[in-house]
User: Which sequence fits this backbone?
């Protein structure tokens, strides 16, 4: 039986960072990965694939140039799923090489197989060939991530009725698509396929999209989606799906409406990958969504067993998962208390992108905080004109009393990059005056911060 200071279950963002941090402390660490390739959901079915397909779609369809050359502009008129997947394969292969190099360079022992608890300190790893190995661990980190939820009654066949994993196995681009679920994943894929000029219908039981986002940003995004021809069926519950003889699927809504399409993508939530871990043998249990509860230091109910990443629930972002894994290792081996990710940015890789940090107008109004806004349109910047941007906005929320930045909200290309400027100023307690007095490179989209600040300044000094 091999002995380790830490056994990490899962090679996604949380597991990878925890393993590397542990190795930096000179400790013996093993990583168990049941797939034949490292990287976890983030690399193979989640973050990297969806974002890579987005970039491929924008480039090959010519969408990002239509502001300059007109709506009829196409870089590749006869776009196929193979064109998109070629770029995805290149990107995923490169990411795997980077991760494997990091693991080898840090002396991390990688075991291929499915892990389960024998007891609180012993793990069983069943390899792909059926061989079984036992590991003794002083500490364990569970970083198994999540998988798409497949509700009963939905006839998934991975051809006409898909989830967010099997959508990557499409053999042809659909002529029409219905997306059920207007969360982050549903919104990203709906806008991606809409970019390819595929008729898309987005269905959700809630009355609005992305309730945690700023309402004005979301309304602007919805306008752009409708302008591309997307149909939004909000406040509508799916009653059932019927497959037809001609290879289509009819989505029946409770209101009586019917939506006919070639493919239905069901993106209604995710559940933790914990069912095969035999948590009960270690004195642990998961909640109804198969997630594991942890304290502020990412410890489970069994103190030497930690969990991090999507498997512990909100915020379930690759960026926060990396930080959680690293901080868990710091707590295990250095006793360093973990600081929860305060004012971390949300990035939604829709078309166009959306990103935010800090508070929304809804939250400020609910808490009775006196605030004002400053808004810039990306087309107002010279760089926006060079890029052919017709839409997009940057919005600053600041305290009326001391002008401290309270929130930053961006819609438009580059939003997930631009947000970090606002994040830094917000976290450091900066004020509107920073954006008024600083100098930005010209021409850049970052100038929108100064335009928004001037707009806000003029509002309070009118």
Assistant:
């Amino acid at each position: 039986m091999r002995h380790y200071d830490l056994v990490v279950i899962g090679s996604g963002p949380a597991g990878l960072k925890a393993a590397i941090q542990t190795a930096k402390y000179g400790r013996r660490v093993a990583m168990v990965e049941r797939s034949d390739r490292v990287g976890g959901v983030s690399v193979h079915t989640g973050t990297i694939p969806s974002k890579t397909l987005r970039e491929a779609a924008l480039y090959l369809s010519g969408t990002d140039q239509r502001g300059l050359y007109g709506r009829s502009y196409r870089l590749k008129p006869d776009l196929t799923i193979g064109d998109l997947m070629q770029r995805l394969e290149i990107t995923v292969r490169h990411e795997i090489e980077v991760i494997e190099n990091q693991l080898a360079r840090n002396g991390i022992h990688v075991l291929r197989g499915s892990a389960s608890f024998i007891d609180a300190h012993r793990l069983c790893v069943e390899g792909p060939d059926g061989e079984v190995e036992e590991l003794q661990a002083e500490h364990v980190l569970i970083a198994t991530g999540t998988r798409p939820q497949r509700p009963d009654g939905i006839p998934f066949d991975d051809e006409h009725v898909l989830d967010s994993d099997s959508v990557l196995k499409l053999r042809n681009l659909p002529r029409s698509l219905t997306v059920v679920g207007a969360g982050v994943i549903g919104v990203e894929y709906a806008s991606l396929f809409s970019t390819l000029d595929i008729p898309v219908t987005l269905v959700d039981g809630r009355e609005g999209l992305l309730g945690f986002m700023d309402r004005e940003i979301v309304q602007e995004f919805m306008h752009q989606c409708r302008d591309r021809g997307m149909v939004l069926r909000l406040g509508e519950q799916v009653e059932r799906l019927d497959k037809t003889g001609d290879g289509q699927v009819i989505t029946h809504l409770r209101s009586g409406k019917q939506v006919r399409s070639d493919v239905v993508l069901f993106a209604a939530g995710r559940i933790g990958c914990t069912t095969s871990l035999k948590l009960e043998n270690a004195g642990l249990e998961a909640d109804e969504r198969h997630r594991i509860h942890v304290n502020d230091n990412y410890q489970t109910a069994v103190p030497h067993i930690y969990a991090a990443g999507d498997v512990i629930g909100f915020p379930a972002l690759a960026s926060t998962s990396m930080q959680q894994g690293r901080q868990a290792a710091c707590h295990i081996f250095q006793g360093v208390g973990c600081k929860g990710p305060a004012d971390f940015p949300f990035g939604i890789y829709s078309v166009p992108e959306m990103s935010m940090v800090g508070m929304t107008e809804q939250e400020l109004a609910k808490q009775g905080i006196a605030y004002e806004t400053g808004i810039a349109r990306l087309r107002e910047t010279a760089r926006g004109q060079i890029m052919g941007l017709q839409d997009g906005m940057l919005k600053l929320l600041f305290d009326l009393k001391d002008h401290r930045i309270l929130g930053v909200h961006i819609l438009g290309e580059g939003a997930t990059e631009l947000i970090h400027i606002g994040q830094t100023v917000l976290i450091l307690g900066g004020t509107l005056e920073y954006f008024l007095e600083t100098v930005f490179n010209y021409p850049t989209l970052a100038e929108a911060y100064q335009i928004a600040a001037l707009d806000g300044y003029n509002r309070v000094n009118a």
